[in-house]
Design brief:
About 30% of the residues lie in helices and about 20% in strands. With about 220 residues, the chain is α/β, with parallel strands linked by helices. It has one domain: Aldolase class I (TIM Barrel, Alpha-Beta Barrel). Strands 1-8-7-6-5-4-3-2 form an eight-stranded parallel beta sheet. The model has no long low-confidence stretch (mean pLDDT about 100). The structure holds D-xylitol-5-phosphate and zinc ion (ZN). Zinc ion (ZN) binds next to strand 2. D-xylitol-5-phosphate (DX5) binds next to strand 2, strand 8 and helix 7.
Length: about 220
């Protein structure tokens, strides 16, 4: 069964507390929190104070996805704000190995996110150092986009790489995940499903989370 990580980008910010409580009462194990800087991606979302507020209302894993330049500058601040997992983009990090070590040394799980055009082979020399890879299945920056079908091939390639090395690395899929494609994404080898609009825009978000988790 996949871990479900509802993406709060699609939540109702006027009702943030209720949205967090909904997730607390659901089968989701992680809360996915998207930070955008308007430079690495063409959009700005939310930052440290919002994460701190959400953290104070949940005991579940806070999975922070940084779509920002120079993420190393802020790793410590996100730890203090309550992040459990911190994911940085390979495309934003010329010194990725250093960034990953920093995140782990501070006491968080480290993830690498890769954009749709970035090949799996670029993870070859870093995969042993990370806890998770976030495979973007849309171009980062916005919720509600359509799943890029080619991601399924990348999931299989990454699954082969991880298994060949005997590693325990989560494969998180981010963007356009719905109950219609969740089963094939998991069959390809994914272990974590991020879902924004398909959860928060559903008539019954608790049921939407349950359907994703149980692949119904
Ligand atoms: C996109 C974000 C995603 C986004 C997913 O840049 O990283 O986490 O919130 O939203 P949906 O599930 O609506 O595609
Ligand atoms: Zn994300």
């Amino acid at each position: 069964m996949p871990i479900i990580a509802p993406s709060f980008l699609a939540s109702n910010f006027l009702k943030l507390k209720e949205e967090v409580e909904m997730v607390n009462n659901s089968e989701a194990e992680w809360l996915h929190l998207d930070v955008m800087d308007g430079r690495f991606v063409p959009n700005i979302s939310f930052g440290l104070p919002i994460i701190e507020a959400i953290r104070s209302a949940t005991n579940k894993i806070c999975d922070v996805h940084l779509m920002i330049e120079e993420p190393g500058k802020y790793a410590e601040a996100f730890k203090l704000a309550g992040a459990d997992n911190l994911t940085v983009h390979i495309e934003a990090c010329p010194h990725l190995h250093r960034n990953i070590q920093q995140i782990k040394n501070i006491g968080m799980k480290a993830g690498i996110a890769v954009n749709p055009h970035t090949p799996i082979s670029s993870l070859q020399d870093i995969i042993e150092d990370v806890n998770m890879v976030n495979l973007m299945s849309v171009n980062p920056g916005f919720g509600g986009q359509k799943f890029i079908q080619h991601t399924l091939i990348k999931i299989q390639q990454l699954r082969e790489m991880i298994d060949a090395k005997g590693l325990n690395v989560e494969i998180e899929i981010d963007g356009g995940v719905t109950e219609a494609n969740a089963a094939e994404i998991v069959a390809a080898g994914a272990t974590v499903l991020v879902a924004g609009s398909s959860v928060f825009n559903a008539p019954n978000p608790i049921k939407a989370i349950s359907d994703l988790r149980n692949l119904r």
